[in-house]
Amino acid sequence: MGEAVVDAVVARGLYKAFEGRFAVDGMDLTVPRGSFYGIAGPNGAGKTTALRMIIGVLKPDGGDVVVDGVPVWPDTRAAKRRLGFVADNPAMFERLSGREMLEYAALLHGLDPVEADRRASELLQVLDLTADQGRMIADYSLGMRKRMGLAVALLHSPAVLILDEPFGSLDPVNTQVMEELLQRYRARGGTVVFSSHVMDVVERLCDRMVVMADGRARVEGTVADVRGAAPTLQQAFVDLVGGRDLGEGELSWLQSS
Ligand SMILES: Nc1ncnc2c1ncn2[C@@H]1O[C@H](COP(=O)(O)OP(=O)(O)OP(=O)(O)O)[C@@H](O)[C@H]1O
């Protein structure tokens, strides 16, 4: 009998309320190992809140999360070793240089210093940060911080990589670098889960996806399943979550002179 395949992420009945309102309201999610998985949803749908519970930094009010076969809650340490995370606006030690940030992350993960140094150099090179490795992170642009965040997240070679809006502040060249790096990581057996508003990126990269709205998974499946009969994924998304008309009379003063 073959070994059972463990899903990369399984969330069941996740709940989180802030000030009496559910941000995540009974979310189920299954991310197959080795997949590229997209989480789409309008502003305020609960994507970031769900991701923060999955990575073990925000305690759910209810439900379970298992990452790479390891329960995330209540003891988050073992699961955290298996995952890497890049936040929307990655928080880092501002007064460290990029290189020092990677050295610090390597220490936290208990990596062998020689191996960590080799990995850091490769990551800085691939992410086009070698020339800036000596500058303080406080002086990095948002796009540089995103790339630095990815370097930190990949340093310990996690089984699952989770990214919140990874393409939001990247220029086209760095978007391509990021996509290629993620593809390479996936080709070597890694699993990528990311949230995005950018439907053409989701369409191009993802095997499977979920559309969240009001804290719940509205539709889940392959990108083709979610697109359904709509001409584009963008249109399917708008149809699913409900588009908004601007109204004929609104903003009539704009450029009216
Ligand atoms: N710490 C918090 N305190 C109070 N309310 C919060 C907190 N974090 C999130 N929320 C609320 O929870 C809901 C979901 O927010 P969340 O950031 O998870 O959405 P999102 O799908 O990531 O949105 P976006 O696409 O705009 O980043 C929103 O109504 C938000 O105001």
UniProtKB/TrEMBL annotation:
Residues 9-239 form the ABC transporter domain. InterPro entries: AAA+_ATPase, ABC_transporter-like_ATP-bd, ABC_transporter-like_CS, P-loop_NTPase. One of its GO terms (molecular function) is ATP binding. SMART domains: AAA. Transmembrane segments: none annotated. The keyword ATP-binding applies. Gene3D superfamilies: P-loop containing nucleotide triphosphate hydrolases (3.40.50.300). Belongs to the ABC transporter superfamily. This is ABC transporter ATP-binding protein. It comes from Demequina capsici.
